[in-house]
Amino acid sequence: MDLSSKDSKTKFYLSSRPLVGGGEVHVRFENDGYVYYLFDRMVLARDESDSSAGVIAFRKGRKVFDRRCDNDASVRQRGYEVLPREEFRDIGAK
Fold this sequence. Notes:
This protein is mostly beta strands. Helices cover 6% and strands 49% of the residues. The chain has one domain.
């Protein structure tokens, strides 16, 4: 299944940005008036590291849902290969 085909009702998009010693990746899709972001974030510093993954949803520009994954799941390599890229937007993932 092509997740970003022109005839698909649901399209998925990938965006990313570098962070100190790591980065932040989003997979965005829309459904029924909501905009969902699956995110994977990692920051590595000399004395400290922080990683998180989860789902954040917006409706009419307001954040309405923000949940973290228990296992710090990450975007798999295949996502980087097949999903169309878009400009990164800061969604307030921490």
